[in-house]
Amino acid sequence: MSDEEAFAEASGLRRAVELIFSVLSLSYPIRVFSGKWQLIRAKLEELHAGLIAAEKCDSGESPSLSRLAAAVVATATECHDLCRRCVVFSYSGKLLLQSDLDVAFAKLDAHAKKLNEIYKTGILTNGFALVVSKPSLAASKEDMRFYVRDLTTRMKVGDLGMKRQALKNLLEVVVEDEKYVKVIVDVGDVVHLLVGFLGSNEVEIQEESAKVVSVVAGFDSYKGVLIGAGVIAPLVKVLDCGSVLGKVAAARCLVKLTENSDNAWCVSAHGGVSVLLKICGGDCGGDLVGPACGVLRNLVGVEEIKRFMVDEGAAVTFIRLVRSKEESIQVNSIAFIVSIASGDEVVRQMVIKEGAIHALLRVLDPKWSYSCKTREVAMRAIEDLCFCSPSSVGVLMSYGFVDQLIYYVRNGEVSIQELALKVAFRLCGTSEEAKKAMGDARFMPEFVKFLNAKSFEVREMAAEALSGMVMVPRNRKRFVQDDHNIALILQLLDPEEGNSGNKKFLISILMSLTNCTSGRKKIVSSGYAKNIEKLADAEVSSDAKRLVKKLSTNRFRSMLSGIWRS
Question: What is the pTM of this model?
Answer without folding.
Answer: 0.73
